[in-house]
Amino acid sequence: MIIKVLGGGCANCKKTKEVVQQAVDDLQLEAMIEEVSDMADIMRYGVMSTPGLVINEKVVGSGGVPSYDQVVDLLQQARA
Fold it and tell me: What does the pLDDT read at residue 79?
């Protein structure tokens, strides 16, 4: 599983990565978490406000820090 956190390194982007990492660890998933900070790359996903969250090349959220439970649900859906 490839997970990308889209954003320029703001506090919300860092928090999103932390939440994602915790959920990945708790679910014992094999996943690579990448930070994408290049605005051109972020725009290619159609994300207009960061942080954005992409799982397996599908945008699953943008514009705010997802809750832990939301991330767990998204990861479980992507795993299924």
Answer: 87
Start-to-end CA distance of the chain, whole Å, equals 11
- What is the tens place of the pLDDT at every residue in 12-34? 999 999 999 999 999 999 999 99
Distance CA 76, CA 80 (A): 6
Looking up tokens 């479980």 gives 76
For residue 11, give the CATH number of its domain: 3.40.30.10
Please tell me the total count of domains within the chain.
Answer: 1
Separation CA 5–CA 8 (nearest Å): 10
Please give the mean pLDDT across all residues of the chain: 95
Residue 75 host element (H or E) = helix 68-79
Residue 63: CB partners within 8 Å, gap ≥ 6? 48, 49, 50, 51, 52
Query: So what's the pLDDT on residue 80?
Result: 81
